[in-house]
TrEMBL record:
Low complexity bias spans: 112-121
Record's keyword terms, sorted: Metal-binding, Nucleus, Transcription, Transcription regulation, Zinc, Zinc-finger
Cited function: Transcription elongation factor implicated in the maintenance of proper chromatin structure in actively transcribed regions.
Subcellular location: Nucleus
Organism the protein comes from: Coemansia erecta
Record family assignment: Belongs to the ELOF1 family.
Entry annotated with the keyword Nucleus: yes
Example of a GO biological process term: transcription elongation by RNA polymerase II
Name of a matching Pfam family: Zn_ribbon_Elf1
Record keyword NADP present: no
Protein name listed in UniProt: Transcription elongation factor 1 homolog
InterPro entries, sorted: Elf1, T_Elf1_sf
GO terms under cellular component: transcription elongation factor complex
Region annotation (Disordered) ranges: 87-145
């Protein structure tokens, strides 16, 4: 009698391990941000060892540390955009107050730029937006000039 045919051993696939330490957005140090996951309280904590920046995010049973890090990146970008919106709104309000309301402003805060022909590269009348960039005139608007 012969032996039984032996079966092959099960080969386990190695899953790639996701990082739990990342680069900080504020101080730009590599591997200085660590993420801890408190699954019992469903909170992910992120903290930089160098600049002590911190962030907390709600997590669920499928969340990984990289998810908390990506939420932190999104929150930082959103905060930056909100700050830009506030500064442009404040600058627009300051420029409106500076004009004194004497009727110098055109439609919807656009200013008519009247230039004399003596300036180099001048093209006559044109509109300038709130950032000082000349706007393109439509055909009907440019016919009168």
């Amino acid at each position: 009698m012969g032996k039984r045919k032996s079966s092959r051993k099960v080969v386990k696939k190695e899953r790639p391990k996701l990082d739990t330490s990342f680069a900080c957005l504020f101080c730009n140090h590599e591997s200085s941000v660590t993420v801890t996951m408190d699954k019992e309280h469903k909170v992910g904590n992120l903290r930089c060892k160098i600049c002590t920046a911190s962030y907390q995010a709600a997590i669920h049973h499928l969340s990984a540390p990289v998810d908390v890090y990506s939420e932190w990146i999104d929150a930082c970008e959103e905060a930056k955009l909100e700050e830009i919106r506030k500064t442009t709104a404040a600058a627009a309000a300051a420029s409106n107050e500076g004009s004194g309301g004497s009727g110098e402003r055109g439609r919807r805060g656009q200013q008519d730029d009247v230039s004399s022909g003596s300036e180099r590269g001048s093209v006559g009348r044109g509109r300038v937006d709130r950032y000082g960039v000349p706007e393109q005139l439509t055909d009907s608007e440019s016919e009168g000039y």
